[in-house]
Structure to design on (522 residues):
């Protein structure tokens, strides 16, 4: 028998933020919550002078990473392997983050900023959700590379062999999770923030399947009206632009150098929209996850994974070696919210022999398995991915035991 | 919030100084624009001019282009025009209007600040 939490589940909501590593956002929680695989404070990286620079709890909301840290495939390779070129026997050591950032003209001192992390009290929304519900110690980006190919895994369970930012074309028979849902008589939507921010990477889908899209204000309306689809994917605002009536809309994606606090507010608003509608709250699971680490330090070595069945040639990876999609990217924050999750749940990752590994293919994998059951037209990597709804239990927490944000 | 909740956490406001629509676009937005440009090419009708995306340097310029393209592909995502609520007819005002022999209070719609 599935747990009551799963039995009552009617909606899955995924909110995908941008470009922050696990340790940068949540690493500071380990001091108070030892099960969370964060930072001891002794982790370090060498700078260009060979000086070992430790992690520092001095991350700023904005202005510290104004040179966008490199997170393209060769840059991430340097970050993970410390500069050892691809070849047999090389070992990942997570020692190339400062070296990578220093190549961007930051100067020696500014390159140390890549080791910064937020003290938990600076991120009251993300850290509260992480400690009140379930945090995943082992959720990794799907590819050691940038946004576009990583987000593709969240929509399709594969990037169709791409490791970069270029426009990709869908290859049959793989369909997006939204198309699979709709064709099977279920409901699914991608909510982009507004037309000025629009959607990321899935422009082909917007052109050919506009019915599966909505705006963030429509998401809020769907929550209020109890008309939320079974599966929703939410995109934050990706740029600063004027709002209606002379207002100002701030980017809320947390991509450097956008303000992290505004992203906190966006996460809080999205959570509140579900939390304050009782029938929705008790029947919804919300995953907050980041697409990739954005070049920012994390101490956990990305593990090997089931190959994707694709290969990116050396001229595409930029490392003089092909990539067979058999290793994950850097670890990212991932939090599952539901009143059926006990406070302080930590899903163990690579630090535990019984831990479970998650990546973005788990998103279409879990949603497909939950709503569509047996669906074959997808990669075996997606089929075999771990179920991120596993933390849901039989016990519904009392309403007075779950927080609301005053935004 | 209408309902009273026991556990409420305050979320700090973002400083107004965080806003900068003149910020240069990141590689992410640059690629987002390139993707939309590919779609624009496929939708171009004879006589129509393709947008010169090399001129898009700032987030404001990017947002204007994205709005144009998104409205074309997904007009249903547009913000609905906000309905301006008529002024509330308070008992006091209604009584005063009645005593002056007027049928209804004068609308202040023109003076309302747009939201």
């Amino acid at each position: 028998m599935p747990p009551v939490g799963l039995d009552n589940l009617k909606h899955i909501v995924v909110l995908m933020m941008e470009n922050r590593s696990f340790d940068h956002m949540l690493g500071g929680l380990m001091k108070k919550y030892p099960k969370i695989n964060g930072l001891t404070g002794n982790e370090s990286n060498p700078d260009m002078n060979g000086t070992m620079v430790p992690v520092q709890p001095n991350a700023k909301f904005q202005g510290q990473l104004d040179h966008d840290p490199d997170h393209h495939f060769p840059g991430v390779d340097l970050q993970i392997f410390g500069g050892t070129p691809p070849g047999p026997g090389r070992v990942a050591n997570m020692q190339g983050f400062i070296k990578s950032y220093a190549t961007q003209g930051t100067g020696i001192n500014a390159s140390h900023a890549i080791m910064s992390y937020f003290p938990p009290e600076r991120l009251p929304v993300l850290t509260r959700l992480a400690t009140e519900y379930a945090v995943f110690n082992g959720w990794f980006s799907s590819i050691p590379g940038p946004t576009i190919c990583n987000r593709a895994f969240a929509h399709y369970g594969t990037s169709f062999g791409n490791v970069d930012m270029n426009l990709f074309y869908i290859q049959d028979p793989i369909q997006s999770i939204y198309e699979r849902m709709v064709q099977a008589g279920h409901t699914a939507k991608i909510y982009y923030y507004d037309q000025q921010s629009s959607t990321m990477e899935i422009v082909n889908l917007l052109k050919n399947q506009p019915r599966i899209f909505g705006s963030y204000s429509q998401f809020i309306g769907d929550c209020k009206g109890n008309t939320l689809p079974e599966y929703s994917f939410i995109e934050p605002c990706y740029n600063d632009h004027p709002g209606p009536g002379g207002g100002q809309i701030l980017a809320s994606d947390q991509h450097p150098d956008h303000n992290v606090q505004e992203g906190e507010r966006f996460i809080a608003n999205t959570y509140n929209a579900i939390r304050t509608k009782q029938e929705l709250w008790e029947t919804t699971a919300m995953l907050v996850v980041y697409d990739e680490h954005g070049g920012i330090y994390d101490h956990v070595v990305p593990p090997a994974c089931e190959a994707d069945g694709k290969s990116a040639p050396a001229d595409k990876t930029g490392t003089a070696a092909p990539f067979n999609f058999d290793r994950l990217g850097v670890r990212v924050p991932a939090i599952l919210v539901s009143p059926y999750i006990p406070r302080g749940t930590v899903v163990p990752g690579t630090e535990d022999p019984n831990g479970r590994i998650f990546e973005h293919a788990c998103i279409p994998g879990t949603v497909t398995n939950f709503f569509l059951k047996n669906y074959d037209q997808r990669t075996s990597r997606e089929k075999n991915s771990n179920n991120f709804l596993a933390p849901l239990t039989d016990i519904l927490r009392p309403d007075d035991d779950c927080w609301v944000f005053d935004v | 919030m209408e309902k009273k909740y026991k556990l409420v956490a305050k979320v700090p406001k973002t400083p107004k100084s965080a806003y900068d629509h003149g910020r240069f676009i990141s590689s992410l937005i640059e690629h987002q624009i390139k993707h939309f440009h590919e779609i624009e090419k496929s939708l171009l009708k004879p006589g129509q001019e393709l947008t010169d995306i090399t001129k898009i340097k700032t987030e404001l310029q990017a947002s204007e282009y994205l709005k144009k393209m998104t409205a074309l592909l997904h007009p249903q995502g547009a913000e609905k025009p906000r309905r301006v609520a008529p002024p509330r007819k308070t008992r006091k005002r209604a009584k005063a209007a009645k005593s002056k022999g007027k049928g209804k209070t004068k609308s202040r719609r023109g003076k309302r600040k747009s939201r």
Summary: Chain A has 15 helices and 13 strands. The radius of gyration of chain A is 20 Å.
